[in-house]
Amino acid sequence: MKKLLLLFLLTGPVLVVSYAQDKGKPPAPGAAADTAKPKKPAGITDKVKTSRKVDGLFTIYQDTATGSVQLYIKKNQLGKEYIYQSFSVNGPTTLFLNQGMHRTTFVFKIEKAFDKLEFSQVNTNFYYNPDDAVSKTWNVDKPEAVFFSDKVGGEDADGYLINADQLFISEKMDGVKPNFGPNPFAAMMFNLGGLNPAKSKYYAIRSFPNNTDIVVDMAYDNPGITAQTGPDITDGRYVRVRMQHTLIEMPQNDFKPRMDDPRIGYFTENVTNLTSISPTPFKDPIHRWYLKKKDPNAALSEPVEPLVYWIENTTPVNFREAIMEAGHKWNEAFEKAGFKNAVQMKIMPDDATWSPDDIRYNVIRWVASAQPSYGAIGPSFVNPRTGQILGADITVEWASGSGPVIQDEL
Predict the structure, then answer these.
(1) Do 247 and 167 contact (CB within 8 A), yes or no?
(2) Which of 80, 145, 364, 400 is deepest in the core (most CB within 10 A)?
């Protein structure tokens, strides 16, 4: 015991001195700076060297070997509002996923949060009078929906690069599958099942100055399907739906929203004025085209930008002249509003290099579905902030359009 005590007394001071010396030892040059300074993301050059570049509103890089997509966000695009619009391009008509269906529309923005980029949907359901003090609470108790967040994979002087496969090949922006809810007949309804990203792929990528289109083939698996399927579905266990995601620049113009008048029927955006004391505090902008006179002083003037409809090359040739004449008849109504030649009708050539799914073109198309859900339909999509119509397409089912001809023959 005495020997142990003596050993402790002899070695104790050595340990204390050693600890004190280690504690007081200055760090190696640059060591503290290295641990304190956050690591910068890698540049983008090496990240995109095997990709093709699609430039436009948003720049897309698609790997030529794997098909994987990266999205480049410019630093001056952060915090700005954009419009998202989805379309179904090809899918089961019984689920209203057939060609030409205008689906989800919302305003979104992209923001940087530390080492990530966040995509969030903006709530456009309310209005605040800016002259009212309570308008300072415009962003209180109305949380925005963050539908996608991913780590920055690369950065240069102008922007950030992120992997976008989990954004576009997903249901984050459009739910795609119908939600039957607590329906007692849900088991009898056709259910797509679950999304299989491994079997999904990109079909087309287009980018222009004012919009970027990403078209994807979404593969769904439902091995335990119980509901009956129609003849248009090859195998109900495995169904592929073609969807188009379109990112649109927020229009910057002098378009003036026009509020709804309940005495007249309009399609509208639903907006509530939270600074109003009215029992009906509604401030609903109607859906309407942006027509502006070339000569504002003239009683009758051509518009700066006319409404142009293209008769798609899927339209039966013997119907095209009648459709063009019918479209131009709308000019009689617009003349009452002071516009001359407001509507222009054109025929899409068979060798056209542009796609009818490009939102820059309004088209009248014909389809022949196995199980039509309608005779004809003419949806449009708008700027949720103002109600300005940004595009419209008309789809006519062959079964409906050819009906009068068949009746005449009978």
Answers:
(1) no
(2) 364
Is 344 within 8 Å of 308 (Cβ atoms)? Answer: yes
pLDDT of 8 above 50? no
Q: Cα dist. 44→115, 152, 153, 165 in Å?
A: 15, 10, 8, 17
Tens-digit pLDDT profile for residues 115-173? 999 999 999 999 999 999 999 998 898 899 999 999 999 999 999 999 999 999 999 99
Decide: 391 and 381 in contact? Cβ < 8 Å.
yes
Kindly report, residue by residue over 93-112, the tens digit of the pLDDT: 888 898 889 999 999 999 99
Q: Which of 222, 217, 226, 291 is nearest to 254 (CA)?
A: 291
Please give the radius of gyration of the chain, using alpha carbons only, rounded to the nearest integer. Answer: 30
The DSSP code for 58 is S
Mean pLDDT over 246-265 rounds to 95
Closest CA to 269 of 74, 125, 168: 125
Which amino acid belongs to residue 167?
L
Mean pLDDT of 178-196: 79
Mean pLDDT, rounded, of the chain: 88
CA distances from 269 to 68, 87, 240, 265, 272 (A): 36, 19, 32, 13, 10
Which amino acid, one-letter code, is at 205?
A: I
Half-sphere exposure of residue 249, counting CA atoms within 13 Å on the CB side? 13
Alpha-carbon distance values, 132 to 38, 122, 136, 265, 381 (Å): 43, 22, 8, 31, 32
Spatial contact of 333 and 289, defined as CB atoms under 8 Å apart: no
Round to whole Å and give the CA distance between 69 and 50: 11
Residue type at position 196? N
Q: Residue 228: pLDDT above 90?
A: no
Query: CA-to-CA distance for 286 and 281, rounded, in angstroms?
Result: 16
Query: In this structure, what token pair is assigned to residue 151?
Result: 């780590």
Residue with tokens 């009648």: 322
Q: Which residues sit opposite 74 in a β-bridge?
A: 159
* CB of 342 closer than 8 Å to CB of 291: yes
Alpha carbons within 13 A on the beta-carbon side of 240 = 12
